[in-house]
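Let's practice the habit of predicting before peeking. Look at the sequence and jot down your guess about where helices and strands might fall. Then scroll down.
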Amino acid sequence: MVPVKSFMVPAEKFITVDRDVNVRKAAEIMRDNGIGSIFITRDGKIIGILTDTDLLRRLVAAGLDPTQTTVEQIMSAPIKIIDENKTLLDANDVMAKEHVRHLGVSGQEGKLVGMISVRDLVVFLTNLPRK
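Done guessing? Here is the structure:
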């Protein structure tokens, strides 16, 4: 089976915002980049992830003002992690067990080296040869 590191988005390509950015600005960045999640930082270090699901459940459903709510207030933290050498099937299992659609990918010494999403798994499955 294919290792997670083969399909992950590498950390160098992460789009991040500081924890004090308002949710509206973060949502605009997500929209403009065609992505469903954005990483949240404090002093340059990733402390969480804001997903489209977080926006729906923790902002819209709660009736919060996106211009007065910071990303830190509604982000998911800590980020669920999978080792880069685990398989895509392992990633699928973790996502199902943890009820998440994004996983951080850890490399040597547990450092965050990438991210894999349900969308990445769907792309992989879609490209498998058909019998």
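How did you do? Residues 38 and 90 are 23 Å apart (CA to CA).
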